[in-house]
Amino acid sequence: xxxxxxxxxxxSGIGExxxxxxxxxxxxxxxxxRREDRLKSxxxxxxxxxxxxxxxxxxxxxxxxxxERALANLSAEWREIDVLVNNAGLAVGMSRINEGEIEDWxxxxxxxxxxxxxxxxxxSNYMKERGRGHIINICSIAGKExxxxxxxxxxxxxxxxxxxxxxxxxxxxxxxxxAQICPGAVETEFSLVRFKGDRERADxxxxxxxxxxxxxIADTIAYMVNAPAHVNIADVLILxxxxxxxxxxxxxx
Length: 253
Ligand code: NDP
Ligand code: 8X3
Fold this sequence. Notes:
Elements: E1 4-7, H1 13-24, E2 28-33, H2 36-50, E3 54-58, H3 64-71, E4 83-86, H4 102-130, E5 133-138, H5 151-171, E6 176-183, H6 190-194, H7 199-205, H8 214-225, E7 235-238
Parallel strand pairs: 1-2, 1-4, 2-3, 4-5, 5-6, 6-7
Helix pairs in contact: 1-2, 1-8, 3-4, 4-5
The structure holds NADPH dihydro-nicotinamide-adenine-dinucleotide phosphate and 2-hydroxyethylsulfonic acid.
NADPH dihydro-nicotinamide-adenine-dinucleotide phosphate is lined by residues 9-15, 33-35, 60-62, 87-90, 111, 115, 138, 140, 183, 185-186, 188-190, 193, 214.
């Protein structure tokens, strides 16, 4: 029987790679993001290549109204969501707390924490109606440890870590699995966004070692969703070989 996955932030990086991986496994997909052109092109490519159905939904997870308009109006068929990957997220800026841009803090908290909540509130109720479902939050090693100048991003991912645990308890009676993946450095558009388009600074993050790829994370998600029904792979910390903690890297420059 065909399954359906909803992946937020599917226009690039981990979300896009996960969309490819689950499409290859035959999932129908609801894909979301703000960049409409990129979202539609991912959707067309996947439906053409894998013969699956794809519903692209353009919205900003920070807007409760936009999230509700998009997800509360799904057809009965599209409400049958087996897997939700709460992936949309970002870091913006990196500075000491006394020097941080307050707008950057708000973008991170509104996206990484409140956006995840708005989406989960609606989708967990669809899962509850069916008595099953699987929610995977994309947390981070920054949700387990803090690093210098990472203050608010780390706090937002610590919140995701707490929400994964809380959601797991709350949704247990409804047969819904809740899990998370906590990656270390993955080379995507993440650092370009963090450094506000400064390509040189972004590229420097991944110099001198082999970072994880978005496909590494997508493969892990595929492994988690393919586990037997009674197994919940609840919390996966995944690091590049050269990364020992959130801030310790063995770089060969
Ligand atoms: P990318 O920047 O490549 O992808 C981020 C995705 O999130 C994009 O599809 C973007 O889509 C979407 N997104 C961002 N803000 C919003 C918003 N307000 N509304 C809707 N969608 C949004 O980065 P990654 O793939 O690396 O990041 C994915 C997740 O992985 C994030 O939660 C990140 O914190 C986490 N992570 C990343 C790590 C890394 O080293 N790269 C390590 C650990 C965790 P669009 O711009 O079209 O809206
Ligand atoms: C993203 C990776 O290095 O900021 O979560 O922890 S890092």
